[in-house]
Structures are given as C-alpha cells and as structure tokens.
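Contributing new records

If you add data, match the layout below exactly. Sequence lines come first and carry their own label; structure lines follow with theirs. Keep one chain per record. Anything else will be rejected by the validation script.
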Amino acid sequence: MNHYVGLDVSLKEVSICVVDAEGSVVNRATLATEPDDIANFLLKEAPNVERVVHESGILATWLTRELERRGVPIICIDARMAHKALSARLNKSDKADAEGLAQLARTGWFTKVHIRSEASDRVRALV
C-alpha cells in the first residue's frame, strides 16, 4: 500500500504525518530537523512512500537537496497555496499541519516549487 507524507518543518524540529491511500493516518512523529533522522524514519515507518511534501521556507532548499540525496521522493510545495488549504482546518498545530500536508500529498492538490541546483547557486553567487 502506498504512503503519503507531510512534513511541517521548523528550525529545530519537524512534525511528520504518514497517511495511506485512503487518507487514514498511519503514523505520526516529531523529530529533529536532521535529514538522516527523517530519512531513517521514513524508511522504517513508510517503506512504500510515494510522495513526501513540505512547504517552501527558510530551510526548503537545504532540506529538499539533502532528502533527495537520501532517496526520499520529496516535493517542495508553495507555502501560500498550502496555507490556504491548511487554514480551513479547525485545529492549527504543527501536528495538524503535517496531517494536512500529507493529505495534499495524497490528493496531488499542490503547486510544486522549483529548487535550484547547487551549481546554479554557485553561479548566482559569482554573478
């Protein structure tokens, strides 16, 4: 069975919610914002992960690149669009936002944000 994951990222910790294809919550966790910890959790708790989403923000570029290196199917989505979908929820917490992001990952109702390559960042820094 496929799993879909939402990551609500902050500087120190990330709230994770895993849902199945029907939208039922399979697992939740709060971990340190460390790519190795997140990748290991997903490998253990969501081995059939199809999509992992997180919102654009201050750590988006770094986290996306690091999780991609670890083989996680990560997608950075537009925070403004996600905020509109998440604001309709009654409960506003990191845990609830992670679940909302997991549901967005499951349904595909999101706008993907382009993450520049490291080479592009280096050229931009030189210019």
